[in-house]
Amino acid sequence: MATTAQLFEEPFDADEYIERLAWRTPGGGSKGGAEAFDPKRLLDEFTNHIEELKQLDEKIQRKVEKLEHQCHREAKEFAHKVQDLQRSNQVAFQHFQELDEHISYVATKVCHLGDQLEGVNTPRQRAVEAQRLMTYFNEFLDGDLRSDVFNNPEKIKEAADIIQKLHLIAQELPFDRFAGVKAKIASKYHDLERQLIQEFTAAQRRGEIGRMREVAAVLLHFKGYAHCVDVYIKQCQEGAYLRNDVFEDTAALCQRVNKQVGEVFSSPETVMAKLIQNIFENKLQAHVREKLDETRHSDVEQYLKNLYDLYTKTTALATKLTEFNLGSDKHTFLSKLIKSIFSSYLESYINMEREYLRSRGALILQRYYDSKNHQKRPIGTGIQDLKERIRQRTNLPLGPSIDTHGETFLSPELVVNLLQETRHAFERCHRLSEPSDLPKNAFSIFLLLVEHLCVEHIDYALEIGLAAIPSSDAKNANLYFLDVVQQANSIFHLFDKQFNDQLMPLISSSPKLAECLHKKKEVIEQMEVKLDTGIDRTLNCMAGQMKHILSTEQKKTDFRPEDENNVMIQCTTACSKVCVYVSRQVEHVRKSMDGKNVDTVLTELGVRFHRLIHEHLQQYSYSSMGGMLAICDVAEYRRCAKDFRVPLVLQLFDTLHALCNLLVVAPDNLKQVCSGEQLTNLDRNLLHAFVQLRVDYRSARLGRHFS
Fold this sequence. Notes:
Exocyst complex component 5; mainly alpha; exocytosis
């Protein structure tokens, strides 16, 4: 059986179990091993082993039954024990309830007895206290203070308690009978009060927090307690303001005193609030008045800077002070203190701000024009203005209204100064204006910026620039208006940036936003009208200059050479000079404009350039060789047109180049060329007009191709 038990090793596998049993049987191995395989012997072994397993199973079954019986017996015993414990617990709980009821009964009796004892003891204590006070009162009545409590300095606390009570009693007595004793009690009351305050002050100087707390507790019931607090506040400020920065000194003082106040006084928040109020109403107010009053009338710029700086530092200090316990509504308390200091200055702030900006802006403008030795001319009046209007509406060669000698009268430095002043004004306005007045005040500052920068400077420069533009037939004219355009655009970008960065946050949620946007739009539209007018007249001048070059440099013999066999095929002198001039003007436009304005202006210039060349070519007649020269000129013009980088302009010159081919094509091929891709959509009269420019038009009877 032991051998059989060894075969039941975990994990159990039936096949493995049979194999091991067969392997242990002599002659039972699958390969025979040392002995030959003996099936009979293996069968006997299996039969015996099965009998052993049956016996083992019976033995194990008996053991299981025995254990189950034992388990049932122990379960019953445990259940009996649990029932016994439950009964014991129930008895204990009943005893506990009885004990609790008994304790409650005894406690009720004790409380009742205590109330009875207190009811007896309280009148007795009051009687004793009354007798003691009557004794002391008699001493005051006799005028002889014999008690040690009034004569021993170490018992000043006890004496203060007595005299405070006697003082209350004396106030109820009739004056005619007890005038003397009331005066003596009052005198002693004030004397003790004075001694206590002196003791508190001395303890404060020595830094004895415990003694200060004791004396403050005694003085709490005296009328002089407020005076004690005042003395404490005054004394704690001694030596606190040694640096130049009163705001940093105040913050450091409050930080240091805050902890001490909590240890000394029973109502520290009241004492801290009174300390801060004292500092604001005395130290800070005097400092602000000194800084502002000395510059209010003598130096407005410095006054505004000082006002902004002082108000900013005061509000920052108030923010720091909110970390202390100052009562339930400390923010309102601090706001009232700040208002009490600055109210008189803030009421007149915006008027002084506007007046300063108005005078400062005028001064900046005047200094600039003085540096240019320029006397500002009134716009819209006088003979010069009449001349300008006539020149704008006609082509009369009146010449420019004024000669600016290339000066644009726009100064980046002046603009930066104006914007800087306005930026500071917006910052001050944001800090110093009431929330309800902020949008209105910011709008008034914006109007001053518009007046000085947009009207007095940019608009004036545009007017001067317009007046300085020469007429379209002027010779060798210098065109400076594009420089004015360039600088005006740059300046307006700065103006727009300040509008978005500085002004918008101040007015974004108010009705003033619509007014500001309308004013800005109005200014932009006025400037755009003048810019468009100036650019149009400048383009006219450019076209006039090109026309002048062509009229002076182009000869009739250029396209009808006397000796056609000895002609170099190249562009004419007039063409070269015009292309050089146009390329220079295109580059000038690119430097002066930005964004889509570049393409718009170059498109207009290119169209006028094409129109001029088209009309110019129709003034001449062309021989066969002259036609080749004209094609060379147009090819050069087309190459110049590529610099415009405008598809329309290049297309126009491509078409013009195709038209010039009509000047040289053989008569028999004329109809075929007119039907080409670039000319098929053109008006037949235009094609005919170009063919008529040929010298051989009549002799070759070319007109029949258009009949």
